[in-house]
Amino acid sequence: MPEEGVQLTPKSELLTTQEIITLARLFVKEGVDKIRLTGGEPLIRPDVVDIVGELYKLEGLKTIAVTTNGINLTRLLPRLKEAGLNAINISLDTLVPAKFEFIVRRKGFHKVMEGIHKATELGYHPVKVNCVVMRGFNEDEVLDFVDFTKDLPLDVRFIEYMPFDGNKWNFKKMVSYKEMLDTIKQRWPELEKLPCETSSTAKSYKVPHFQGQISFITSMSEHFCGSCNRLRITADGNLKVCLFGNSEVSLRDHLRSGASEEELIQIIGAAVGRKKKQHAGMFNISRMKNRPMVLIGG
């Protein structure tokens, strides 16, 4: 979170509950079987439980997931689970409370940890924990995060530091997955590689006898664009076919101007058709204009 905070989008520009469900229904009808509610922070929406409940009614949708900062998770999770939520990612870049306050600009480390334990208690296996690794900030905690998977059914996902507007990206701050893997193997040489799905964005490993596992999201050092099947709709209704692409199509504006279902499908199809073979590479991305990650969501 930038020190000065971020300018909030006026409520009238955000998708309404009904618009979210309308678009979700359209995508599910076209074959999407997993929907993730992400950020900003999805759990601050007062209607988030209702949205999950409505998504759960969509025939053909197999997975409803959420990516959250974990602050409100303990309070909301029982209702979310009852509404149909079946997968959770929690963003946590440090296991040190003081560092946590520095990066998120607020207290709440204990609430996030409480949320992680609550999720495991309620049967979410694995609970995914997203950790962006930055040199000079938290790369010294990689082994502690692996150790975190010893007694809890977690999937700690180490994410390579990526360039976005406002995050003062610097190549020297990026810790590649191979460097992290080498560090981990020095401590746990018996680390095992796990099989993964074709469209997976993660390379997964496990220390034998640990309850959980670890994964690496290698979007910078080894992109997975060829197998990526993800689409993203921002809170204000823009379709992004690539997280690092700066071209966006406003589905909200088309919806509000009365576009038919067939027209929306054509607009979405055309945008997906323009999706590039791969992203521009980390050095080019760092010079491109794009939304800051805090306005896109994890």
UniProtKB/TrEMBL annotation:
Pathway it works in: Cofactor biosynthesis; molybdopterin biosynthesis
Reaction(s) catalysed by this chain's protein: (8S)-3',8-cyclo-7,8-dihydroguanosine 5'-triphosphate = cyclic pyranopterin phosphate + diphosphate; GTP + AH2 + S-adenosyl-L-methionine = (8S)-3',8-cyclo-7,8-dihydroguanosine 5'-triphosphate + 5'-deoxyadenosine + L-methionine + A + H(+)
EC number: 4.1.99.22, 4.6.1.17
Cofactor: [4Fe-4S] cluster
GO molecular function (one): cyclic pyranopterin monophosphate synthase activity
Enzyme class: lyase
SMART domains: Elp3
PROSITE patterns: RADICAL_SAM
UniProt xrefs under InterPro entries: Aldolase_TIM, Elp3/MiaA/NifB-like_rSAM, MoaA, MoaA_twitch, MoCo_biosynth_MoaA/MoaC, rSAM, rSAM_sf
Entry's Gene Ontology BP terms: Mo-molybdopterin cofactor biosynthetic process
Keyword list, A-Z: 4Fe-4S, GTP-binding, Iron, Iron-sulfur, Lyase, Metal-binding, Molybdenum cofactor biosynthesis, Nucleotide-binding, S-adenosyl-L-methionine
Domain Radical SAM core: 1-190
Entry's transmembrane regions: none
Biological role: Isoform MOCS1A and isoform MOCS1B probably form a complex that catalyzes the conversion of 5'-GTP to cyclic pyranopterin monophosphate (cPMP). MOCS1A catalyzes the cyclization of GTP to (8S)-3',8-cyclo-7,8-dihydroguanosine 5'-triphosphate and MOCS1B catalyzes the subsequent conversion of (8S)-3',8-cyclo-7,8-dihydroguanosine 5'-triphosphate to cPMP.
Family designation: In the C-terminal section; belongs to the MoaC family. In the N-terminal section; belongs to the radical SAM superfamily. MoaA family.
Assembly: Isoform MOCS1A and isoform MOCS1B probably form a heterooligomer.
Protein name: Molybdenum cofactor biosynthesis protein 1
Record organism: Lonchura striata (white-rumped munia)
Classification lineage: Eukaryota, Metazoa, Chordata, Craniata, Vertebrata
